[in-house]
Queue: 2 jobs
Job 1
Amino acid sequence: MANLTLSNCKLFLNGKWVRGSIVIDGNSIRYIGPTVKEKGTVWDLEGRPVIPGLIDSHVHLIPTALNREVLDLRRVKSIRELKTLIAKECGKSGWIIGRGWDQENFEEARMPSLKELDEACSSNPVLLIRICGHLALANSLALRKLGLRKGDGLLFEEEVTKALESVLKPGEEKLLRLLKELLYEMPKKGITMVHTLSSTPQEFYLLQLIKVKWGLPVRVRVYFDAKYLDYLLNSKLIGGFGDEYLRISGIKVIMDGSLGARTAYLRERYEDANTRGKLLLNSSKLAELLERARGLNLQVAVHAIGDGAIREVIKALSLSSARGDEVRIEHCSLTPPELLDELAKLRPIISVQPHFIISDWWAERRLGRRCRWLYPFKTMLRAKLKLSGSSDSPVEPWDPWEGMYAAVERGKEEGSSIFKYTSSEKLSISEALTMYTEGGARACREYPDYGSIKIGSKADLTVLEYLPTTPKELKEVEVYATLVGGEITYLKR
Ligand SMILES: [Zn+2]
């Protein structure tokens, strides 16, 4: 491939903006500096900012792809509004599936009842998944069709997954199409790599198909659901298998639930219920898993939200030989200082989802003053922990700019109760960008091949229309072009 020179750029180098040019040779960066006479194509970027390609270190690809087919309920403000929305869909053919409602956002401040759902629609089966994905509400017809007997219409955990699977029953062809559409949309926001968590052999297979049929417009790193560890063993697959575009990186395991559903495991009980949540895996079991995964060169991404769950992860780390970036803590939401000190010694990757700060605006009700330890990104950075930015899509929108915005604004505009306690945890724009570039590459142990503008790094680059200087500009920033390995995956028209 001929050289491509990006000239007249504002380069994001080690957290600073520097004027200069980049020469791309093949799929890598060969030169950074003032413009020199180069053979090949010269692309004058007219002073536009160029950053390393954005990385989302925690998405669920197939659930996000399927989400394109369901009603988005994230902005519904009352049960009344929800009923109207469902009634409008009622009478069309087949199931009505929605996702993203949150009773904390409802004027009525409670969950909808089975009766209310039946009032909205009784002629079609209706299944409405809560924002967290761990809970769903079904109407009477849906319950009958699913063969479930539930007075309150509520489905939990596995029941939700099973119901969705049996209802959506997307054929492979459709799944392939939806997944491809999703991946091909991501470069528009400047994304060059995603890590897909709780992945399945089917998802891995579909990604391979997309790769050979059309090519992957974003690089994908796969973290299988831990229940597939035996599948990996039997298939003789280990971490690192794959190529630059698609690679197995690790497995994902879940320690607790969510704050919204009061299932995140806390050291002390919730403020608004007589429970501490639930620990799903103890430290010795986790330590065992860490050892097994380590033997297969697989990273372990551990979902831990409550301080009780995070404490268990710390215990497991001290029991096992797994160190540093061999382990990632996903969410790491409620992190009081004493646990943060422990983490600073053990140095796992911390994979965070800043947009939770906006969505968990009600956190004060659950945690009271403990909110001051929620999502302490700045303190974590000061403790020299490696943070990677992500969305947890479909739980939160996958647009990385919304995530970065939340990290620098911390829910101030949105009236999140978290802001009051943690305004000092705001990140700078440059720290937020670093989290979604360098941070993401470190999270899958592939820095500085990715996530940086360095000589020898892959030419994964995102060109912006302007340099964002305020939170609002950051949220609304326009991507001008995206390159993966020197190939243009998006160009604004
Ligand atoms: Zn997730």
Job 2
Amino acid sequence: MNLTSFQIQQHDALQMVRRHLEKNGAAERDALCACIADYLDYRHRLDQFLADHFHHLCNVTCYQSALSACCAREAIITFFAEVVINVLASSPTELDRMMARLSQPHEGSRCVYLGSAGCLWRVRPIVCALFLCDRAEREVLAPKPELQRRWQSLRDEARRFRWPDRPVLFDELEQRFMAAGCRSPLMYINTSPALLNVKRRAAAAAVGRQAP
Ligand code: SF4
């Protein structure tokens, strides 16, 4: 059985980021850690919200039964920046474990990152962190408008880091690695025609605002 293209792309991105950090030393790591500090603060608040309000339901429904329904996808969208963030937040042992998993043929329909103790990412991809199943929305959010408002606010806040209609962290990290000669199919913000269009429109609007 062969590795999937998803596994190969993920493995290569992970390896590229680790090599970049090894080659460029503590100063580069410190600079990158400073760049991602606000994002980690956001992710901490998001995780706390999920733990406070969804832990019980998720634990009973999916974890104890090993159903893990929200991880039942073979491939997920991960931005290159998320690989960078996760490498910075993880130990070498955790990263070795991810790379070993990505290097083995994967059977079944579950996400390749789903291990016996849960997700192998220390900072899960944002698409995973912001996913709620229908039951969670129906049973936890629907009866509580204030909770819905806070959830929407957290979802909106994610755009501030990843949606390139303004300067965003995910683009900054892609460009930093591109400037160092790195290339990855996960660099969607600088390769996806749709996202490049978003950037172009935002740049044109900014020029329009500055015009007398
Ligand atoms: S990356 Fe982690 S959280 Fe996301 S689907 Fe895979 S195992 Fe689940």
